[in-house]
Amino acid sequence: MSITDLTSMGESQTQLRKEINERLSKLQAEISDYCYQCAKCTSGCEAHKLLELEPHKIVALTKRGLIDEMINSDVIWTCMSCFKCRERCPQKVAPVEILFAL
Asked: Which has the closest alpha carbon to 64: 99, 102, 24, 92?
């Protein structure tokens, strides 16, 4: 691998990070007023015992802008995308949509 390849790869990662931040910023604005951490999303989650980060914690991290914690976890790959988190939420917040944005 050449220096040019490494530089190009670094630029691609920077661009990807920018795109992720933009998507999450939109979601952040949508959820910040609605989620009050009742954890009903977690109690309905089929995979919550396997998840490194539970659904209500995913929302909390997003509200605080702590994206790296989610990116560095296995939660993106463990979520079953069943949308039960959204169904159970009294405010209709969907942690699964945050994972899709990642």
From this structure: 24
Tokens 């949509």 label which residue? 97
Six-digit token pair at 59? 């929302």
Query: Cα dihedral sign for 64, 74, 39, 101?
Result: positive
Q: What is the pLDDT of residues 22-57, one digit of tens each?
A: 877 777 777 777 899 999 999 989 898 888 899 999
Domain 3-101 class?
A: mainly alpha
Contact by Cβ (8 Å): 44, 87: yes
| Cα angle value 1/5/11 (rounded, 5°) | 145
Structure token digits, residue 61: 């991290």
Residue with tokens 């802008």: 65
